From TrEMBL, chain A:
GO terms for biological process: protein sumoylation. Belongs to the ubiquitin-activating E1 family. GO terms for molecular function: SUMO activating enzyme activity. The keyword Signal does not apply. This is Ubiquitin-like 1-activating enzyme E1A. It is found in: Nucleus. GO terms for cellular component: cytoplasm; SUMO activating enzyme complex. It comes from Sesamum angolense. Keywords: Nucleus, Ubl conjugation pathway. InterPro entries: ThiF/MoeB/HesA, ThiF_NAD_FAD-bd, Ubiquitin-activating_enz, UBQ/SUMO-activ_enz_E1-like. Gene3D superfamilies: NAD(P)-binding Rossmann-like Domain. Pfam families: ThiF (PF00899). Residues 60-417 form the THIF-type NAD/FAD binding fold domain. The keyword Calcium does not apply.
From TrEMBL, chain B:
Pfam families: ThiF, UAE_UbL, UBA_E1_SCCH. Heterodimer. Zn(2+) binds at C153, C156, C432, C435. This is SUMO-activating enzyme subunit.
Length: 429, 648
């Protein structure tokens, strides 16, 4: 662990902080307990888990050689919700269905149009086939065919209206083509769940793509010098509104953390606490882990509202440009992606306001990039394949608990060919 | 979305795809979605069950059918109005000649072996068609662009090649499990079930000159009326008992090694009275010979379990019995096939018994199958990503957008924050014998080696020629082709058996040979140097070719396998270099496995200068990437991050 709870406890500022945050703190401790309990149960399950069938071993032979039989068993027990079925998400669905997850639930009530199918290989572009059916229904039929061992089903309705209980059924939630506020609220529902739900958003515009990941507090194993090592990562949410209102709390905590540990504190936290022996953790050890984390939830939990001045020094321009467009769509009440080059002047205006407020040089978000993102309503299939592939890989990692997951944004731009990971969290106001 | 300019380049393009497997399925899909209208696809393979986890155009019901044809039909379902021409054929077939290649605007490779890649590279060079090459292994992958005269060709840099092992390591002194697998598969399995006329090193070392070859033949031959059980035990005792005893008698061998332990079947599995084996019934069901299983009749289920010596011995005897009772007709013609359950069981058991004799850790059937079958780790996601990157490069190539060509590496661990890392392509290697006309030198004992040795070990194995023609001045020494006259064929066959210096036009020190492949349109000159002696272990070919980029040796075990072409070593070379460049970012330690490979590169590359040239280049490229303008530099230095910057 990078911080010592006993030391923290002697700090008067922190005592005040904890006092005033008693309720929230308790709630957090409770949530953590549930998470850890769930983790334990999951481990238990893994140990008692039945063996793969002969059929599974034959079908998954090549990938078991990559991630092992344990990971394959976990995959086969996982449940995934996918909302918004554009080309990138269809690619993703193909990847996880092939990998052999337990179930995939598709949500997209849109009726199919030629444009929606431009990067979709699940549905033939034939009106006689698709007319009158929703995108989710059509994709479901094809995906079922890919791997009979995966249950694929459709959930109708508006994803933003689904209750928190609904999300409890899933281990992974992937949403796309939805507004900023929908992203926020679903992320929050996932965070509030008693079980740990991995949350992802994905968007492609023109030849650019963005993935956001929130695994909350995530424990996984990775190979280091040929030994399996346990690691812990703490993620920021996309933007959890509940916490951002507690300004005082936030400030106090940040000051504390800055004084004692410096702003570098929120680098990727990687805690290798028990080597190769997850099951050896006693409940006391788990308790300590939980306890020590207690003071941290208020520090950096928002990934999209991070003040730009405190961003990593060379943050991808795509991150900034996507935030401007997202904000623009939100303010204008647009359906996500329903933009065109004609919006450029207004978007430029918004950029100016945002940059001024954040004291950032406007040139950091170039016109040419904004224009591409505004115009690029149709997806570029090679980019869908790349982003859908990366997302598939990440979800497989998160379910199997093996390998470094990406934290917490991924950007790809076919123009320069770079696939970049950005770790963005609230740092300092 | 693609721009108008890109779209018109896409629509007018005629594309050749080689390979319809893991990468191929993804690639064909992405090409179709991207608007390509005319795609030709060559693949000689048929569909297998273990393909279905990633080759998503195929279903269970397609098992056994042509990959190229099924892939075409599957893609036409969602893009009915494009033209896809499938060829269920080997890309090395003569019909795919330079003229065939010339009709395409770009060639896209999704291949799984070095041999075919080199062949396609040469045809692309000869036809002047750009090549986009790719490969994946597990989470790693790469896409490279090869345009004649502009970038390096596929063969400008040394490539990993499957490792071969010295004969005596396999026959007498194994130290790794893979040695036991090679012994079980290439020697024992081949001896018992394969072509009896093939040369086989089994026993050669162990019994040396003392026993005649006739005697060894007798040992492995089943005598008339010999009980199968008895025969199995006799083979067992011979290879795991007697041969080990014999080897032990050679004290010199064991001075610095652990002495192996002879194992006899009766000590592991007591002899049962005849006719009391009740397990036989299970296998009486007739069916697919490939599904007959010794594991099943012995009562073992999980291929991931480690078997004890006793279990391995039981499987060994049972598998042998099953071969002779259920698959007798095939004996004499069998070659090891990773999809042949009984063959895998036999090889696993034999390798494990040998391993336990030599104190080498045992392995499960699943692991042994991976090693014996040279199975490549493969997942759908990496293939999908790589296919996307191939199409992006292909579109640049079609637009002749030379300055934006990139080699892209797909990494498992980020390097300088990148999971997908583009690097500018290298310039052609001026000493590449494939794309430059650099002469080669061959050291050979011209009074000892036959023309046949030269053809097999150099022209085919090293130069990768398919239909070679060998000339000394104006006289033809050797030629292959369908259109030869009978007397020519006889003449060349006679030449093959002749020692070089005794050929009609003698090849001696100082001779310059011209070797040409008419299909690949590749021609090289070889300066012959006479040399009497060769080191049997270090120079097993009995001849040495130089001025030729030596393939890197890669361990033939599952974990290091790069047969699918992702040159992990080069990826790690690039990443470890660029990571060192950047002090600010978290340095991802290269795994020990990769480091080993990195050092392999510098030691194994035939020319050190060559690899240095590359390292320096990668560094330079990385710096350029650092300085370009697509990242934001926030002014003000408000954060700790900027203080750490090496500005002063």
């Amino acid at each position: 662990m990078s911080r010592n709870w006993e030391e923290d406890n002697q700090n008067p500022g922190l005592k005040v902080l904890l006092g005033s945050a008693e309720e929230a703190g308790e709630k957090y401790v409770f949530a953590r307990k549930q998470q850890l309990l769930h983790m334990f149960l999951r481990l238990q399950l893994d140990m008692d888990g039945e063996e793969l069938t002969e059929q599974e071993t034959a079908l998954y032979d090549r990938q078991i050689r990559v991630w092992g039989a344990d990971a394959q068993r976990r995959l086969s027990k996982s449940h995934i919700l996918v909302s918004g079925l554009k080309g990138t998400v269809v690619e993703f669905c193909k990847n996880i269905v092939l990998a052999g997850v337990g179930s995939v639930t598709l949500n997209d009530d849109r009726l199919v149009t030629e444009e929606l199918l431009s990067a979709n290989f699940l549905v033939p572009p034939d009106e006689n086939v698709y007319s009158g059916k929703s995108l989710a229904e059509l994709c479901c039929d094809s995906l079922t065919d890919f791997n009979p061992m995966v249950r694929v089903s459709v959930e109708k309705g508006e994803v933003s209206k689904f209750s928190a209980d609904f999300f409890d059924k899933f281990d992974v939630v992937v949403i796309s083509s939805c507004s900023l506020s929908t992203k926020q609220s679903i992320n929050e529902k996932c965070r509030k769940s008693l079980k740990r739900i991995a949350f992802y958003t994905v968007d492609c515009r023109d030849s650019c793509g963005e993935i956001f990941v929130d695994l909350q507090n995530y424990i996984y194993t990775k190979k280091k010098n040929d030994e399996a090592v346990e690691c812990l990562l703490e993620y920021s949410s996309f933007e959890v509104l509940e916490y951002s209102t507690e300004d005082n709390l936030l400030q106090t905590s940040i000051v504390l953390s800055d004084e004692k540990y410096g702003a570098r504190e929120n680098e990727m936290k990687e805690v290798c606490f028990v080597e190769n022996r997850r099951s050896c953790l006693t409940s006391t050890q788990l308790g300590n882990l939980m306890y020590r984390n207690r003071a941290q939830p208020y520090i950096h939990w928002e990934a999209v509202s991070v003040p730009w001045r405190s961003l990593p020094r060379r943050v991808s321009k795509l991150y900034l440009a996507m935030r401007v467009i997202e904000k623009f769509e939100e303010l204008e009440g647009r359906i996500p992606g329903e933009t065109s080059a004609a919006d450029l002047p207004n978007v430029q205006k918004l950029r100016k306001e945002l940059c001024e407020a954040q004291s950032l040089d406007e040139s950091q978000i170039p016109d040419s990039l904004l224009e591409r993102l505004l115009e690029g309503r149709r997806e570029f299939p090679p980019v869908c394949a790349v982003i859908g592939g990366i997302l598939g890989q990440e979800v497989i990692k998160a379910i199997s608990g093996k390998g470094d997951p990406l934290k917490n944004f991924f950007f790809f731009d076919a123009m320069d060919g770079k696939g970049i990971i950005e770790d963005i969290f609230r740092q300092k106001s | 979305m693609a721009s108008e300019q890109q779209l018109s380049a896409i629509k007018g393009a005629k594309v050749l795809m080689v390979g319809a497997g893991g990468i191929g399925c993804e690639l064909l899909k992405t090409l179709a979605l991207s608007g390509f209208k005319d795609v030709h696809i060559i693949d000689m393979d048929t569909i297998e069950v273990s393909n279905l986890n990633r080759q998503f155009l195929f279903r269970q019901s397609h098992v056994g059918q042509s990959k190229a044809k099924v892939a075409r039909d599957a893609v036409l379902k969602f893009r009915p109005n494009i033209s896809i021409t499938p060829y269920h054929a080997n890309v090395k077939d003569p019909e795919f000649n330079v003229d065939f290649f010339k009709q395409f605007n770009v060639v896209l490779n999704g291949l799984d072996n070095l041999d075919a890649r080199r062949h396609v590279n040469r045809l692309c060079l000869a036809a002047g068609v750009p090549l986009v090459e790719s490969g994946t292994t597990g989470f790693l992958g790469q896409v490279t662009v090869h345009v004649k005269g502009r970038t390096e060709c596929y063969e400008c840099q040394p490539k990993p090649a499957p490792k071969t092992y010295p004969v005596c390591t396999i026959t007498s002194t194994p130290s790794k499990f893979v040695h036991c697998i090679v012994w079980a598969k290439d020697l024992l399995f081949a001896k018992l079930f394969g072509d009896k006329n093939q040369d086989n090193d089994l026993n050669v070392r162990a019994s040396d000159a003392s026993s005649s070859s006739q005697q060894t033949e007798d040992v492995f031959e089943r005598k008339n009326d010999e009980d199968i059980e008895q025969y199995g035990r006799r083979i067992f005792d011979h290879v795991f008992g007697y041969n080990i005893e014999l080897a032990l008698s050679n004290e010199d061998t064991w001075k610095n090694r652990n002495r192996p332990r002879p194992i006899y079947s009766k000590d592991v599995i007591p002899v049962e009275p005849v006719g009391q084996n009740g397990n036989q019934a299970k296998n009486l069901v007739a069916g697919n010979p490939l599904s007959i299983s010794a594991m099943a009749s012995v009562g073992l289920k999980n291929p991931q379990d480690l078997w004890s010596l006793k279990e391995n011995s039981a499987i060994f005897l049972e598998a042998l019995k099953l071969f002779f009772s259920k698959r007798e007709k095939e004996i004499g013609n069998l070659t090891f096939d990773k999809d042949d359950q009984l063959a895998v069981e036999f090889v696993t058991a034999a390798a494990n018994i040998r391993a336990s004799s030599f104190g080498i850790p045992l392995h499960s059937l699943f692991e042994a199958k991976g090693i014996a079958g040279n199975i490549v780790h493969a997942v759908a996601t990496t293939n999908a990503i790589i296919a996307g990157l191939i199409v992006i490069e292909a579109i640049k190539v079609l637009q002749n957008d030379v300055k934006n060509y990139r080699m892209t590496y797909c990494l498992e661990h980020p390097s300088r924050k990148m999971l997908l890392m583009p690097v500018e392509p290298f310039e052609p290697n001026k000493s590449c014998y494939v794309c430059s006309e650099t002469p080669l030198t061959l050291e050979v004992n011209t009074n000892g080696s036959k023309l046949k040795d030269f053809v097999d070990k150099i022209v085919k194995a090293k130069l990768g020629m398919n239909l070679p023609l060998i000339m000394h001045g104006s006289s033809l020494l050797y030629e292959v082709g369908d259109d030869l006259e009978e007397d020519e064929v006889a003449n060349y066959a006679a030449n093959l058996e002749k020692v070089l210096s005794e050929l009609p036009s003698p090849v001696i020190g100082g001779t310059i040979l011209t070797v040409e492949d008419l299909q690949q349109e590749l021609k090289c000159s070889i300066n012959v140097k006479h040399r009497e002696e060769f080191d049997e272990e270090k120079e097993p070919d009995g001849m040495v070719l130089s001025g030729w980029t030596q393939p890197l040796a890669v361990e033939k075990n599952g974990k290091g396998s790069t047969d699918n072409g992702a040159s992990t070593s080069r990826v790690s070379e690039a990443t470890s270099l660029v990571t060192e460049e950047d002090e600010e970012l978290q340095i991802i330690p290269t795994q020990s496995g990769k480091k080993r490979k990195l050092s392999d590169i510098s030691s194994a590359a035939s020319s050190d200068a060559l690899s240095f040239r590359n390292e320096a280049k990668v560094k330079r490229k990385a710096e350029e990437a650092d300085n370009n303008n697509d990242v934001v530099m926030l002014d003000g230095g408000s954060s700790e991050n900027s203080k750490k910057k090496r500005e002063q």
